[in-house]
Specification:
heterodimer; A: 11-stranded mixed β-sheet; B: alpha+beta; 4-stranded antiparallel β-sheet; about 30% helix
Amino acid sequence: MSWLICGTVPNENFPLTEGHCEVAGDILHVGNTGIRISRGTPALAATASLAADVLGAERPRALLCGDTGNGSGSRKLYKYLVDHSEKLSEYSGITFHYLLPDVDWHNKVMFAIDELDKKPVLVADAGYMYVAKMSGFASSYDLFTPDAGEMAFLADEKAPHPFYTRGFLLQEDNLVPDLIKKAYEYENAARYLIVKGSTDWIVSDGKIMETVSEPNIESMEPIGGTGDSLTGFVTAFLSAGYPMIASCSMAARANRFMGYFANPSPAFSISQLLSFLPEAIHSVLKT
Amino acid sequence: MLKKNFLKPSLFRRLFKKQTGENASGAGKPNISSMGMISFHNTGDVIAAESCLKKAGLDVKVMGPPPEFRTGCDLVIQFPIVLNLQVTGLLSEAGIKPIEIVPVYDILLEPVSLFNTKDFGDYLMIRAANMKITVRKSDLEIVNISGGGCPDVPYLAENLISRSLYEAPQPRTLGKTLCGYALQLAYEEMVRQCPG
């Protein structure tokens, strides 16, 4: 069974498109359309597709639509998911990504998925993770991949968006366990979490299962798309059939190794890092 | 089974008694506010309205609506309620149509107002809320934008990266969401720390 990645691309003229992902150079092809891999959902889908090739797994499919922030493309995508919900049971999992948070549409999608006989594994990051928490349905998801700041957002039961999170900038690693505890206390977390940061925290039902800190490449933080690539990695490992905790752990390490081999400056792009993806996965599989 | 948390937009009326001076519970306790709140159909309108009102010299502030009123990526504008007429006129002249203008009862959410600065040697990164902007110190070129989760983030990045901090469009002119607004704050802090 294949995996579906849902998100937007920064081009208003990009039509609603569904198809297999294929990467050629710095272009992600989905169906008959192509988009440059710079960050966001194209970076996630490209990572997942390239990683699937290395792992010998089926390349993911992607459902993309152009949206530069006014939400029109996001709403087309939400509607497509609701109108074609019966197709969603054909996927082993769905990764939701850059979509404009819209509680009403999110809930329609959630109700449609809940009606399925076989529910796919649900992964959410970026805007879709925001709306999943905002809606009160966070605990219906299998995996969220917040960074340390977004973890503070999940932990703040009153915050509707990271923009309003109390203590957002207090991201010291020693605060993360408390933030995790609070997020689960208010049912604002998915069953599993990868909390991305200088240390990656892998969490199951509120319990910290593993931390990954090495190799630590500080210059990856400013590079747009390095969080998206981690979510792409975990999508690929899950799609290849690895268990959840193992997938999270290998994804965290693969993303770090990609940075280690690329040795980037803060001016690098994610597509420059992706050329080191095969090497990174092989390093993880060896350990 | 899903944990259902239905939103009740009708709560808006209970929370914001329109221009009456009653408090949110309606219990009659005096709760006169000097501030008003303007709600809009989308965040793009909020950003445009903020620019318009600030340009006119008004003391306005972008805030978050209370959880009961939010529908997604929401923002509202707080302003001195006595300027209601002027605000209405300015927005009308600018072609911006608010949903409504109501008094505030001390329940709006404060946005993040602190910045985090990280020095990478040749590069400087500033984070506001969930958005980060990085420039090369030698020529102030914007080399990266990261963080965020709303669809205008990749669009903003495409339009700002590889351009000088002082030649790039301000995020507020292209952004439409809270993430775009956070990037504007980071951008302004970068301009403050790196005067051209």
